[in-house]
């Protein structure tokens, strides 16, 4: 198997739904990032051999192909859209790395994009003539209605089962916002301006009092203070794009920024209980660690998905992750959650964080998705 390198990784700002990106299509979001990646590496867009893209809300078709063509990638190059919900953006890295490792390609564009603001309006076709179509917000994630909770309800179940209080969730969220605001200058290095947006605009000076006033989204039991999920502890719906260029060793030697490349080490996809998606990360990370004889202390950088504060708290506790290494410049609670792009954003963050670490340092990325899926990846600073 050939070694694989992440030559460059960039993203747009993350903007909450119906904000500054509300009129932008997925191609509008993606194209500037792709062109900047090529400029930073010295590669031509026509040299990209494959495109693998995560997207969850486009509503059909193959947005990876649209984006590839809009960016100027030759028409004879393949492009594939992945929909593993929140995991899709990070799954694209694993599949792209496999293409290079097995000799199928030397330059692969991977990542994710989500225009939540422009997502399709979903309707079930009526069974009988003259009956109205039935609108729905999301597809089923399991075949069992009794085991297919909405994500907020699943998070509430996790909070109840593990005794994670609303105040603990607020503490995590407040710290995520604080780190993002403090790291705004550093974060700008990974953001390609689109529609005048250079910063993640959702981050704010969150306080316990403000957090306490945010509305509840899910409550497991009205008579119990456990099992509560509110807006402060939930990542906002958002729009964004995030991409990276994966290259072979032969290509790496020709790049203008070869000294910044990090090595793709490995990735793993897996699943857990289908009705408990917020907890799916733990068994998949543990399986990866067992395979490589790793433990939490082996990772200088940890990018952990924060779809819900309770999810991040649960996963970090069970995996005994060092708090000071998790989401050093904040997470999705302070950015927002553009579903198909969120895993790719973790990878972009990890790539840039590794630039600040010593040679040999490793980064761990982990994200869970609807239906009880999870995706994990590891980079190394070479």
Explain how this protein is built.
- Strands 1, 2, 3, 4, 5, 10, 11, 12, 13 and 14 form a 10-stranded mixed β-sheet that branches. This protein has a two-stranded antiparallel sheet with strand order 6-7. A two-stranded antiparallel sheet has the order 8-9.
- It is 32% helix and 21% strand.
- It has a domain at 4-119 and 236-260: Thiolase/Chalcone synthase (Peroxisomal Thiolase, Chain A, domain 1).
- The chain starts with a strand and ends with a strand.
- Helix 1 (26-41) crosses helix 2 and helix 3 crosses helix 12.
- It has 12 helices and 14 strands.
- This is Beta-ketoacyl synthase N-terminal-like domain-containing protein.
- Keywords: Acyltransferase, Transferase.
- Belongs to the thiolase-like superfamily. Thiolase family.
Please describe the structure with a list of short key phrases separated by commas or semicolons.
about 375 residues, alpha+beta, Peroxisomal Thiolase, Chain A, domain 1, two-stranded antiparallel sheet, about 20% strand
- Number of contiguous helices: 12
The CATH superfamily of the domain at 4-119 and 236-260 is known as: Thiolase/Chalcone synthase
Rg for CA atoms: 20 Å
Q: Report mean pLDDT, rounded to a whole number.
A: 96
Note poorly predicted spans: none
State the CATH topology of the domain at 4-119 and 236-260.
Peroxisomal Thiolase, Chain A, domain 1
Question: What share of residues is helical?
Answer: 25-40%
Taken in chain order, the helices and strands follow as: EEHEHEHEEEHHHHEEEHEHEHHHEE
Q: What is the CATH class of the domain at 4-119 and 236-260?
A: Alpha Beta
Largest sheet: 10 strands, mixed
Shape: globular
Distance from N terminus to C terminus (CA atoms, Å) equals 18 Å
- Percent strand equals 15-25%
Chain oligomer state: single chain
> How many runs of DSSP E, i.e. beta strands?
14
Structural class: alpha+beta
CATH architecture of the domain at 4-119 and 236-260: 3-Layer(aba) Sandwich
